[in-house]
Each structure stands twice: as structure tokens, then as C-alpha cells.
Amino acid sequence: MLWSEKLLEYDLGNHPLDPVRVELTIALARDLGLLDRPGVTVREPVAATDEELLRVHRADYLHAVRVAPDDPFFRGYGLNTPDNPVFDHMHEASALVAGASLAAARAVYSGEVTRAVNVSGGLHHAMPARASGFCVYNDPAIAIADLLAAGAQRIAYVDIDVHHGDGVQEIFADDPRVLTVSLHESPMTLFPGTGFPTEVGGPAALGTAVNVALPPGTRDRGWLRAFHAVVPSVLRAFRPQLVVLQAGADSHQLDPLANLQLSVDGQRAAAIAVRDLADELCGGKVIATGGGGYALMQVVPRTWSHLIATMTGDPLDPATLTPPSWRALARKRFPDQDPPQRMTDDADVGFEPWQPGVGQDPLDRTILATRQAIFPYYGLDPMDARD
User: Fold this and answer.
1) Which of 385, 347, 349, 379 minimizes the C-alpha distance to 367?
2) What is the DSSP string of 94-115?
3) Where do the domains of the chain lie?
4) Strand 115-118 versus strand 155-159 pairing type
5) SS3 state of residue 164
6) Fewer CB within 10 A of the terminal residue: the chain, N end or C end?
7) DSSP-assigned states of every residue in 280-316
8) Are 47 and 35 in contact (CB under 8 A)?
9) What does the pLDDT read at residue 360?
């Protein structure tokens, strides 16, 4: 587990991406005893160096990130916009988030640990020379690039944020060593407007970008049906050495910035499904990051505490009560809200597996479109439910 109070300094001000969501996550995980489990260590990260950042970002962009906070009229590189306002020590705070994901990735790749978590990370929209979607430096991409430089040959990036993981996909579009898989709300209805099933990778890496563009209103059962109809088959064919998971919590029904309808229970099931695939395919090796999530107290702390539990041992019983000490902190931060009493939304996460020709609703058409776009690259039959 990578954690430092300094990670809360990635603070865009009066903005949906409020670091209180990370503060409350760590507090809940700690009060639940998850950070004291046998074998769990909490390490303080160090900031990524320019050399490490330059594996993904351009030098002129790093310079812009450094100087923009001192110039109230700065424009360019996606900075000083409503989505990406500048803030004091922006470079240092962003580099520390990237450094946490780098440390997590190196610990897993070296075999020092099997899984590692950086809930402050997952800033997947940042481009090589542009801030985007609340993201300054693309920490998942920086971690992946570092592993490639260290000799990794097959890395699977799985993104379950409600928004398309466009930055990571674009950065590795032509690199056959990186498989990017994103399940997100349809680009027809949500930022960033990319992530169609027909986006399958660059000319040198066709088939390595996998996009499941879910219709607005998709609930747990549909999301899980789509996941299991696409992701296991592709990951098994790709045979990753490790998995990088971006676990954005903004697919929840309470999230104010998107239109999917998942529960905390569904998000918990998604994290378990990714972990189980990693157990099957690559010795359990997972680097997990946070991501989006704007129901700051009601959702994010519970979803990411389930993520931490799943990555550090046995998944947490959904019926677990939230500790009184955590509820007191949550009330202090949000005096006008009642904190959740339990770690569940009491949702049923059972689902019917996808079958060709059975459903003709928008979700099943989405599943089929992704399978038809991707499966032939791996010698799989899009119409065979066994694939």
C-alpha cells in the first residue's frame, strides 16, 4: 500500500476531484483493520523524477506544469481550464502521485509483493503534452512505461472507470506489449467522447485496444455480463505478466458526473473478478490504482476500501458495519450528510452470462460489437459464448 498525507496535496481547489475522497478512504481502510493485515506494508512514496515522467510526457509540458501556477493568465497544454485549474506546487503533487504508482509497479514486477495499491492514482486522461479530465500526469502510463523499460513484455491495463481510459490507450496505441481494456459509459453520452468498439489499436498493435462502451443506465448485472463476455477471453489470449487495474468508482448510481447505475457491491465484484483473472494468468500480480469517483463520502471510501481488502487478502464481507470512528470523521467532513452504516448497497450482483442472439437490447449489441471488433485478432469466435 502506497500512502502519504502529502498525496492529498493533489488538490484542484473547489472542484469535483476533492482529495477528501482519498482521505476518507484511507481512514475507513485503517479503521476496518485492512492496513494491519498480515503481510501488508504501508510505504511512503517519493516523487517521480523528470527522467521517469519523460517516458510518457514531453519536456515542454513538464516545464508548463511547473510554471503555470505562477502565471494567472497562463494558457495552453490543457492547463488553467475549468477541468484542470492550476494549483500551488502542481508539479510536485502530480509527480508524487506518479511516484506512488511507480513504486507499486516496481514492487510487484520485482516479485517483492504480489499486489500493490495506490488509491490516489489512476489519472488516466492525461496526454503526453496535455492535461485532461482532472489529470496532470498519467501515473498508470508512467508506471507501465517504467515496467517496459525494465523488460516487461506483456502488460494488461484494465480500466473500470466510467470514463474511457483514453490517455493510456493513446500512449500505448502502437505498442503490442500493452493491452488496454476499458469498460466505460458510451462516448456518445460522456467525456471524453472516445472509446468506441472500433478503436482497436494502432497499425503496429492491432487488437491491443479493447473498448466496451456501455449504454447509460447499465446496472450491476449488465456491467458484469459485459465484463465476463469480453475481458476473460481477451486476457487469456494475451497472457499478461501482470495486470494494472484502474478502479474508478464513478460508475456508481450516486455519482453526479456520469450515468451508469452500479452499486458498491457491483464495484466490489468487478475488483474481485480482475483479481481472480490475475490469479489465474499471472501469479496474482496486480497494481491497483484509484481513478474517478465524485460521490465523495457515500461511495468512494467504501468502494476503494473493498478494493484494498480484495488486493490485500480476503474480500471484505459486504454486511460489515462502517466503524463509528470513521462515521464521526465523515460527519465532520460532510455535516449535512449521513454516513453509510454498512459496506454494502444490498445489491444482487448475480448476472446471466452473455449468449449470442439471445438479447437484442443495447447492452448485448455493445457486447457483440466489441467481440466482433477484437476477438478475430486472437483467433476467437465472436459468436461462440465459450470464447
Assistant:
1) 385
2) HHHHHHHHHHHHHHHHTTS-SE
3) 5-378
4) unpaired
5) coil
6) C
7) HHHTT-EEEE------TTTTHHHHHHHHHHHHHSSPP
8) no
9) 74
Q: Which residues contact 248 (CB under 8 A, 6 or more apart)?
A: 122, 124, 159, 160, 161, 162, 163, 290, 291, 292, 293
Distances (CA, A) of 190 to 26, 186, 255, 259: 29, 6, 13, 8
**In the structure grid, which three cell numbers stand for residue 348, read together?**
444482487
Q: Which three cell numbers stand for residue 326?
A: 470513521
Quote the crossing angle between the two packed helices 324-333 and 20-31, to the nearest 10°. Answer: 170
Report CA-CA distances (Å) from 152 to 124, 156, 242, 246, 247.
20, 11, 9, 19, 22
Dihedral, CA atoms, 350, 294, 292, 54, nearest 10 degrees?
-170
3-class SS of residue 184: strand
- Kindly list the catalytic residues: 125
Q: Taking the CB of residue 346, how many other CB atoms lie within 10 A of it?
A: 10
Q: Please identify which residue in the block is written with the cell numbers 489499436.
A: 201
Task: Name the grid cell of 265.
Answer: 457491491
Helix or strand run (H / E) with residue 326: helix 324-333
Count of residues for the chain? 387
Cβ contact 262:220 at 8 Å: yes
365 neighbors 353 (Cβ within 8 angstroms): no
Does the N-terminal peptide bond of residue 215 adopt cis geometry, omega within 30 degrees of 0? no
Q: How many CA atoms lie within 13 A of 289 on its CB side?
A: 32
The CA distances from residue 143 to 253, 304, 314, in Å, are 30, 20, 26
- Cell numbers found for residue 242: 501482470
Closest CA to 312 of 45, 117, 105, 101: 117
Q: What is the DSSP string of 60-93?
A: HHHHHHHHGGG-TT--BTTBSSSSS---TTHHHH
CATH architecture of 5-378: 3-Layer(aba) Sandwich (3.40)
